[in-house]
Design brief:
about 30% strand; 10-stranded antiparallel sheet; 8-stranded parallel barrel; 13 helices; binds alpha-D-galactopyranose; alpha+beta
């Protein structure tokens, strides 16, 4: 059994194959005992948890617990219980009272319940076991349930928190984080993924200092700027060595995550819905459940942590039937035509792409209403007949006739002022309680906290998706929230709007993905502005970034791979000079970078030279041959562009028979030194052979000695394919 309760010692042990997480009950309070490599044997709380009484530390309730909570590692710290560190939960009772949570019971069961209205991890009764620990504020009858689900084989524990108002009065939840973990040390680096539009998820590492080191989103989406992921790496930890403790949020809205080092050099790590501009009125009999946090501990550095996440996403987060299927190679017309296309042009593009092996064409922005630039028509999801006289159906049929799949772009959460929909429903705009409403990319946001708006979106998209043979939908969202208010919501609940918006979005996605299980959905938010586990639950791949420059993509895809698997990252070959950065890189390098994710094209193949077409044809054939290894194998990062002038990756098929190595030189020097790429994860004694480069070496030589490379040319790349012989 992966969860054990030791009644004598009052200890919960949550075990995966390689990790242990332990919680103790101390005088009715829950203390955090341990998180790390698996431990065994009997122990008591006092055996492993030091305590000293410290000056200035107050004691909350001497009758229940003679210790100060400020000096203990708390499992789920509540504001108002003599623990002045960053709390996980704050409830406003409206009468000056504070939450006083006591342990009142637990249950353990096989399997895991779906979290109501939110995406969450899933698994069978053989794969996951759940522990619910019940805490109660007996004065007010508020029940807080801490939920831990353990995926034993995967080495993953997930957490979420449920609040039941069993009392007789409304209560206001001002803050409810999903996970909080206290450590006795502070010798950590915090690793996070930061960026901007077209520069998403660059790796940032900082030493912790006294006080709070926090990342957050206040933009209404998980954001380009900071991804809902943090890791605390023990000092000295690397890609292959050392302890790493990490959290990733299954949520697409405002989040907070961080680590606070206190005056005793203890560290509190946490993650949850951002309490900024958030509160939730919970009436008697009502329940609020927080989104889920995925917690991964690795004793072998960041690489192992990433592989645990990658497997977990493929097996237990992405619910789409395509999550474990090989994905098609697509061409997207955005950078090829922008808004300037018609049926004839699209068919030509599709035919030419088909000739070189592409399997699907995706029609991007500009096919609906009167949209010829970003200034109008969002909300009017009917076809522009002057561009597509035979409608979407007519176009899709012609694409089908040339034996290609057809996909379409939508941005359903948005509305343009210049649209028929806005004329009919100005009150459906989020922010319509404000005197001024800001525009972002000329558009407003629809108020998804209003169920009528959600039903409209579901109806209009259901009509569209069933009107033609649509195999793929790219779901975009192109601005941040500013005026977070709703006409539909009562005035005293306006701080619920940002979360209600996300609940509305999830309701729409739940309904549509259930109704159209054969459509492969791709997420997008101005590229990677909402690249998170919440979206991946519905959409197993996401357009990683609007930047298609091969070199910038090395950083973006390297950073993204810290958490998210290659098969979740859309990666397309585009033209040079690159449209975003103006940089010129070779077609080989552009192809090799796109091979590291969901391969596709984002260029006008009609304008490609014969030489470029020949490279693309070969690249596509290669991807078809190798995609199972990239999409479903294990990924090892060999060399970081953030720490050097090059970047290297390795993918290994699960049976360890095929090894792909990618190396990219970013900048070279005169007379460069040799770099040795030390492969990882191979069978020591097996012999591996790369036919093209005629290299035949044992696993141990490839791993210990490595392959020597001379990075002699800026932006040059190579790919090696070893087979076990
Ligand atoms: C966003 C997307 C792009 C493209 C445009 C269309 O920026 O990220 O890929 O779809 O919108 O307007």
């Amino acid at each position: 059994m992966s969860i054990i309760y030791d009644d004598k010692e009052k200890i919960f042990l949550i075990n995966t194959i390689e990790t242990t997480y332990a919680i103790g009950i101390m005088g009715q309070y829950l203390v955090h005992l341990y998180w790390g490599k698996r431990i065994s044997g009997k122990f008591s709380i006092n055996d492993i948890m030091p305590y000293v009484s410290r000056p200035y530390a107050s004691i909350f309730r001497k009758d229940v617990n003679p210790y100060s909570n400020e000096c203990l590692p708390m499992e789920y710290p509540a504001f108002g219980s003599c623990d002045p560190r960053y709390p996980a939960i704050e409830i406003d009772y409206g009468d000056g009272n504070f939450l006083n949570l006591e342990y009142t019971g637990y249950i353990i069961y096989r399997g895991k319940h779906k979290i109501d209205s939110l995406p969450s991890s899933f698994g069978t009764e053989n794969e996951v076991t759940t522990l619910e620990i019940e805490l109660t504020d007996k004065t007010k009858n508020t029940q807080v349930v801490l939920m831990y689900s353990v995926f034993e084989e995967m080495n993953v524990i997930t957490r979420s928190v449920k609040i039941n108002n069993l009392g007789t009065e409304d209560i206001i939840v001002d803050k409810v984080l999903s996970a909080s973990v206290d450590f006795f040390e502070n010798d950590f680096q915090m690793i996070s993924l930061s960026g901007a539009w077209a520069r998403e998820r660059h790796i940032e590492k900082i030493d912790l200092h006294h006080g709070n080191t926090m990342i957050e989103s206040r933009r209404g989406a998980s954001s380009h700027q900071l991804n809902p992921f943090i890791a605390l790496a023990r000092k000295g930890a690397t890609e292959t060595y050392g302890d790493v403790f990490s959290m990733n949020f299954v949520y697409s809205g405002n989040f907070v995550a961080g680590a606070e080092v206190d005056h005793y050099q203890m560290t509190r790590m946490y993650m949850g819905i951002n309490p900024f501009n958030f509160s939730w009125k919970l009436s008697p009999g009502k329940v609020f459940q927080s989104p889920e946090v995925i917690m991964v501990y690795s004793d072998e550095g960041l690489g192992k942590m990433s592989r645990v996440y990658h497997d977990f996403f493929r097996e237990h987060i992405c619910k789409s039937k395509y999550s474990k299927k090989v994905r098609p190679i697509l061409i997207n017309n955005w950078e090829a035509t922008y808004y300037d296309f018609n049926e004839e042009k699209l068919i030509k593009l599709a035919k030419k792409a088909k000739e070189i092996g592409v399997e699907m064409i995706v029609l991007d922005d500009g096919w609906f209403g009167e949209r010829n630039d970003p200034s109008s028509s969002l909300g009017d999801w009917y076809v522009n007949k002057s561009k597509l006289p035979n409608g979407i159906d007519g176009l899709a049929k012609k694409i089908d006739e040339i034996d290609m799949k057809f996909g379409i772009w939508v941005e359903p959460e948005m509305i343009s002022e210049k649209s028929v929909l806005f004329g009919k429903h100005p009150d459906w705009v989020m922010g319509s309680c404000s005197e001024y409403i800001s525009e972002g990319r000329n558009q407003y946001i629809l108020d998804l906290s209003n169920p009528e708006v959600c039903e409209y979106i579901i109806d209009v998209l259901s009509d569209l998706f069933s009107s033609a043979k649509i195999s793929y939908v790219k779901w975009d969202m192109n601005r941040s929230m500013n005026e977070v208010n709703s006409r539909y919501i009562d005035n005293d609940r306006q701080k619920e709007v940002a979360h209600r918006y996300i609940l509305g979005l999830y309701y729409i996605l739940d309904t549509l993905t259930e109704r159209f299980p054969n459509i492969l959905f791709e997420g997008c938010a101005g590229g990677g502005g909402r690249f998170d586990a919440g979206m991946l639950y519905y959409m197993p791949q996401i357009w990683t970034s609007d930047c298609t420059d091969a070199i910038e993509r090395l950083y973006i895809q390297y950073g993204t791979s810290l958490v998210y698997p290659a098969l979740s990252m859309g990666a397309h070959v585009s033209v040079v000079p690159n449209h975003q950065l103006g940089r010129t890189t070779s077609i080989e390098t552009r192809i090799n970078v796109a091979l590291l994710g969901q391969f596709g094209l984002e260029l006008d193949v009609e304008k490609c030279s014969d030489e470029e077409l020949s490279h693309l044809r070969k690249g596509i054939a290669k991807y078809k041959e190798l995609r199972e290894i990239i999409q479903f194998g294990d990924m090892y990062r060999l060399c970081s562009p953030f720490d050097s002038n090059s970047a290297s990756w390795e993918f290994i098929s699960k049976d360890k028979k095929d090894i792909l190595v990618f190396n990219f030189c970013i900048f070279t020097n005169a007379n460069p030194k040799f770099s040795f790429l030390h492969l990882q994860g191979l069978e020591e004694d097996a012999i591996y052979y790369d036919e093209e480069h005629n290299i035949k070496l044992s696993g141990s030589v490839l791993m210990r000695n490595g392959i020597s490379l001379l990075n002699t040319e800026d932006y040059k790349s190579e790919m090696l394919h070893f087979k076990m012989i």
